Amino acid sequence: MKVSLFVTCLVDQFFPSVGTSAIRVLEKFGVHVDFDPRQTCCGQPASNSGYSDEARQVGAHYLEVFQDSEYVVVPSGSCCTMVRRYLPELFTEESPEARKARELAARTFELSEFLISVLKVSDTGARFPEIVTYHDSCHLLRELGIYEPPRRLIRSVRDIDFREMANSTRCCGFGGTFSVKFEDVSVALAEDKVRAIQDCGARFVVATDVSCLMHLDGLMRRNHIPVKTIHLAELLAKF
Q: What would the pLDDT profile of 112-151 be if each residue is shown by its tens digit?
């Protein structure tokens, strides 16, 4: 089986260990992973901000890079949502680009979804003797309907103490440019999330999107809160 890894902009620029961890996990189960250096962005930031022409241009390049991939795996619920739900809508419905986008959407999976649904893997052999909780990213849960796969993978980690936080499905407040345009609301949502993390006694918070983790980590660092963030791929690669 061949998989093309789409690492996303934030992973590429700020959290490369998430990409390398995803590769380690996939390769452990016999998957051949390729990384095309031509890849850039999926178009989500431009699309979310209303710049459809710019998003379409970036999206067309994405299609060119990945059109021949057997599978595309994305360590991000939000970018996976962009490709699966919104990339086809950037093009005229009957255009060749729209057809290619629909076909590619059907071969694109978020990492936890791919492990559980395609590879039929629920235990990566990881070990992590810590107290952890899990934050549901909005796009993964609300747009893709993925709730149980990340939890199933977390629970399988050896020696882990997994605790559900209150309101785990509530937004962390990031929302891309939302955190800039509506700073007060964004910070208030993050503060609620951090309190929930602390209340369950977790020492680590796991998520499938580095954007959420980056947002929460910034708040916790500024307030000297001794809770660390870890992406699901990094957790599952601790074998």
A: 999 999 999 999 999 999 999 999 999 999 999 999 999 9
206 membership: H or E segment, kind and range: strand 204-207
Helix, strand, or coil here: 225? coil
- The CA–CA distances, whole Å, from 37 to 61, 113, 149, 170 equal 12, 24, 29, 35
Burial class (CB in 10 A: 0-12, 13-18, 19+), 215: buried
How far does the chain reach from its first CA to its final CA, in angstroms? 22
pLDDT digits (tens, 9 = 90+) for 143-173: 999 999 999 999 999 999 999 999 999 999 9
Whether pTM > 0.70 for this model: the answer is yes
| Paired residues of 161 in beta bridges | 131
In whole angstroms, give the CA distance from residue 134 to residue 37: 31
CA distance 209 to 68: 26
CA distance 63 to 202: 40
Give the residue ranges of DSSP H helices in the chain: 9-13, 16-28, 44-48, 52-66, 77-81, 96-105, 111-113, 138, 148-155, 178-181, 183-199, 210-222, 232-236
* Residue 182, Cβ density class (10 Å: 0-12 exposed, 13-18 middle, ≥19 buried): middle
Distance of alpha carbon 129 from alpha carbon 108, whole angstroms:
32
Sequence-ordered list of residues with C-beta below 8 angstroms from that of 175, at least 6 positions apart, any chain: 138, 186
On the CB side of 82, how many CA atoms lie within 13 Å of its CA? Answer: 22
Q: How many whole angstroms separate alpha carbon 22 and alpha carbon 5?
A: 8
